[in-house]
Amino acid sequence: MAWRTMEVQDQRVRFVIAASHGGESMSELCRKFDISRPTGYQWLRRYRIAGVSGICEGSRRPRRSPRRTATGIEQRIAELRRERPDWGARKLAVLLEQEGIAVPRATIHRVLLRLGLVRLEDRRSAASSRFQREEPNQLWQMDFKSPKGWGSKIGPLSVLDDATRYAVALESTGSTRGEAVRECLESTFKTCGLPDAMLMDHGCPWWNQQAVGG
User: pTM higher than 0.85, yes or no?
Assistant: First the structure.
């Protein structure tokens, strides 16, 4: 029990005991305990009916929450999240809309939080500043994505423009070998032009520890 709850209950117990003994008037007792007379009479009435349990601090949670999402919709949100644990509120909102259920993304996120379905690693703040580049083709970011949902051990090759966040390439190469990546990039260069720079990690195929300078 919280300390504040204990203090409140202790105050009520001491008040009703003093009021039951009748040594002081109700007005004097209420002034002494800094409560109103209606509150004092209410505590005393509850004590006489149910004893100490009748004057316990009750829950302040509202009996009704008219704006709370319907239970059936919350259950459907939970089902979709469990089926797709990597999907957030934005994607789940699309699935719900396809089922004829229109729920704002913010509401879906609150439901997921309330049900404990948001992982700690997903509770990060939105970016507060722009990305590195101001214009398209100044910087491309390249990496192989997770293979989940692609039916392959190797996920698709993703090439993302830093300024626009547009995926200039997203292709299942079936391999991380340099030849497959080069073929994809050559096709992308013809379609979108050449970037000023490209950014990638130290993984293969674009980093070779045996070559001079990588």
Answer: no
